[in-house]
Hints:
The protein contains 3 helices and 4 strands, in the order H-E-E-H-E-E-H. The protein is of the alpha+beta class.
Amino acid sequence: MSRDPIGKGWQVILDEMNGRIRQHCASTSSTAPKATAVSKFGELWIFCDTDDQVIRDLITQARKQASRTCDDCGAPTTRQNRDGWIVTKCQACIDAHLEKIWASTRHSPT
Length: 110
Ligand SMILES: [Zn+2]
């Protein structure tokens, strides 16, 4: 559905949303519109060209759910601003991520 990397935690939300959209389209005999999801500034963005209010509501719901779900592991959390780095991750995932960055920039002892 998207070339942009979406964390496992958010992928679950997207899969559920896509399932509901397909169900809705099957029940109304319409073609499911193409939805593209990207992760930007710690937010889940979903682009979908449709006038169908039911689908628009499903997308709004998914975005709201993502805003309080860790994009990595799916744990409940809120949007965090860590030194200008805006993410929606739980504390454990932020720590793991920062540790990785720190380890990769660490200088070897002389
Ligand atoms: Zn997490």
